[in-house]
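re: the backbone from monday

yeah here it is again, tokenized this time
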């Protein structure tokens, strides 16, 4: 079993990358082999996160390690750990695949975080829609407020009830 694990790690090392990101647990022995080869190993990456990370890094997710040729490798300038409150996060800076950012939401309750998440998603959707089509219709009751102001302005120019009825 140990030899099978070593053979698989050697296949991964043959890709000549300096960081291996895995969706599953990496046991001590393979982690030691990676470290001896000068390769960082990150474990427990979530499925959706790894897909987004591969895109941001300009690479692709690889599930077979037999042939490193033709595999699009991603890259970044720096990988480091940052502490936010009591949580440790891994930060990728200087992405080669394009631009990406992470927004960390923190709050005192799950309900507050859910509301903040919904508000942030709404704001990002508005920005994306505006980028796709710059014709903007303002929301949050803006059109109703503009109509009310126009009606109010028109009402001040009328003098009698008869004029109001026919306007």
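seq for it, each position gets an aa:
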């Amino acid at each position: 079993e140990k030899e099978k694990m070593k053979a698989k790690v050697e296949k991964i090392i043959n890709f000549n990358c300096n960081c291996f990101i895995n969706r599953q647990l990496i046991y001590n022995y393979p982690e030691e082999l990676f470290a001896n080869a000068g390769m960082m190993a990150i474990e427990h990456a979530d499925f959706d996160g790894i897909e987004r990370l591969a895109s941001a890094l300009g690479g692709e997710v690889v599930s077979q390690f037999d042939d490193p040729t033709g595999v699009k490798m991603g890259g970044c300038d720096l990988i480091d750990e940052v502490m936010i409150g009591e949580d440790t996060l891994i930060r990728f800076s200087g992405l080669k695949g394009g631009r990406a950012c992470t927004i960390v939401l923190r709050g005192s309750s799950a309900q507050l975080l859910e509301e903040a998440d919904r508000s942030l998603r709404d704001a990002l959707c508005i920005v994306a829609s505006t980028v796709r089509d710059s014709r903007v219709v303002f929301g949050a009751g803006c059109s109703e407020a503009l109509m009310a102001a126009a009606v109010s302005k028109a009402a001040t120019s009328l003098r009698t009830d008869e004029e109001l009825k026919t306007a």
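The two ends are 88 Å apart (CA to CA). The chain has a mean pLDDT of 84.
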